[in-house]
Amino acid sequence: MRIDPSELGAERIYRLMTGIVVPRPIAWVTSLSRAGVLNLAPFSAFTFVSQKPPMLAISVGRKGADYKDTAHNILDTEEYVIHIADTPLMQAVHDSSVEHPPEISEVAELGLETLPSERIKVPRLSVAPVAMECRFRQCLEFGDARSRLIVGEVVMFHLRDGLVNDGKVETVALDPIARIGGPRYARLGEIVTLHGVFQTPKSKD
């Protein structure tokens, strides 16, 4: 099969790409509006881009002609929290993708409890096994739709007790969920461990 992207509209290309680039980790993001409304939304175009300092990137698209509330909030306040959700939170993650007016808090709508962050003003979700307090560092726009790639620095990690062993996260215990095409999600399948290969250390520490 051959598919020429120049012959497709943005929506059809989106459906194609989200079915190919799988599974995708989900950034579950809390942010505050200028009016103090706590927003919550999931983003599956998400990865890390630097380890020192630790930096994460999420791609935020538009809803109609305007950018999503998360992009507005992050660029306005320059603070946000990225959470990693586990399997028991799958329905809540999905429900938080419902589009609400900016004055409606998805956190309140879903009845989720929060905790104060340590370095930023944006609260974090108490139920998430991982929460990363972030400060905005850079925004790049791509494509005809001008999707915004937002990069932030992690200034504090919060991890549920028992998730870290000898400095490494126990992925099975984390039980993260991933996004695939459409309103579908995935869990970890079989984990295959291969022999280690030599890699030059990233730093002396």
From TrEMBL:
Gene3D superfamilies: Electron Transport, Fmn-binding Protein, Chain A (2.30.110.10). Signal peptide: none annotated. Residues 19-171 form the Flavin reductase like domain. The keyword Flavoprotein applies. It holds the Pfam family Flavin_Reduct. Transmembrane segments: none annotated. Keywords: Flavoprotein, FMN. The keyword Flavoprotein applies. SMART domains: Flavin_Reduct (SM00903). InterPro entries: Flavin_Rdtase-like_dom, Split_barrel_FMN-bd. GO terms for molecular function: FMN binding; oxidoreductase activity, acting on the CH-NH group of donors, NAD or NADP as acceptor. Its cofactor is FMN. Belongs to the flavoredoxin family. This is Flavin reductase.
